[in-house]
Amino acid sequence: MCLAIPAKVTELLGDDMARIDMDGVSKVINVALVEDLSLGDFVVVHVGYALSRIDPEEAELTLSLLREAALVGNAS
Amino acid sequence: MKYVDEYRDPALAKGLAAAIAAEAEAGRTYRFMEFCGGHTHAISRYGVEDMLPANVRMIHGPGCPVCVLPVGRIDDAIRLAARPDVTLCTYADLMRVPASNGASLLKARAAGADIRMVYSTLDALRIARSEPRREVVFFAIGFETTTPPTALAVRQAKAEGCANFSVFCNHVLTPVAMRAILAGEEEGVPPLDGIVGPAHVSTVIGSRPYEFVATEYHKPVVISGFEPLDVMQSILMLVHQLNQNRCEIENQYARAVVPQGNARALEAIAEVFELRDSFEWRGLGAVAKSALRLRDAFAAFDAERRFEIETKAAADNPACECGAILRGAKRPMDCKLFGTLCTPETPMGSCMVSSEGSCAAHYAYGRFRDRARTQKEGVLQ
After folding, report:
1. A14 CA to chain B: closest CA distance, Å?
2. For residue range A6-20, what is the model confidence (pLDDT) as tens digits?
3. Which CATH number fits domain A6-73: 3.75.10.10, 2.30.30.140, 2.40.50.140, 3.10.270.10?
4. Are B57 and B28 in contact, with CB atoms under 8 Å apart?
């Protein structure tokens, strides 16, 4: 139910609407809940609404922590 | 797919599994509840449990809106849809939930009711605009993730003066349910050691509403993304906290969750909704201040007032263990109906309907492991 998918903003349509791309699938969603949206941003999309913007730096940091933990794990 | 594939890397999963095994202290048991059905589904689908050491156990929680909605409210929706002037718009998850006397929205539709599956509240509003002679009612369910979309639709309907649109509101609150689980830990059931916190609910409410879990119940929470590596990293973080005798609210899903949540979404919820005194949950019973209703300012868009809905309590199938499973007190295979009378094709209880339900997830991905285990032990199933 709370499933949400990361999608890339490809067009800002005005009136709080935007076109997004989910792995080749194009869809128009409501973006009223996310401030200062820019083209190319990734958002978390749930039932036709963007809930939050994905922070690329935080995503990379999470991945680097994951890799580090996995390295430690493999070495143990 | 960006922001998905990199969190499903099998080689990293192996490394994380080894890290968890190394971190988990022998002679100590770790019991974590994944509150949210999205996590339940991911854990079953990707076999995360198989990668955990024997002393790290996951308990499925009640975070599945379809599962916790009581039969009486489905009965209400079916009665509403049976009215000749009503078009009921619903998320697809609800279509097959068993109601009283073997009824369901799917059967009601087959019998002629105008029930339409929608992807979004935007679709329900569109239907209301294009069919002004129909009373279009949106069957709103879900935790805080799904509440802002309902709030925005109600706000939009009011702004447009859309007189034939209303909402049958069943939105419920995560922190209150979490408190109910922790306050109701049962005799004979080992207590939880920590909680894997919801991903998308937290994009809306942030991490602060979980503070009470640490301060009052002295258990750690790690807010986790929904991908398998997210869940495994969160489990590792929980084990790490316990080993260090810490209980804090940590955020593994920092790429989408900030401590204060989404201000715009919270404003929309606060503007349109207020707390109900009490709401009935399957598995938890009546829980005070655990659900939302429309404020008086939006009374015209409240289906409960417009159609004078008075919910009658209705009993679940007495043989169905959904209630205890939702509280984490029992597992799907503890239910007599599981996999025999109750399957995803013929669900007897709600946990077998939604793909996020514990029973549906276990039926799809977990029961083969049970079978292998019991065959090894020489028990026939």
Report:
1. 15
2. 999 999 999 999 999
3. 2.30.30.140
4. no
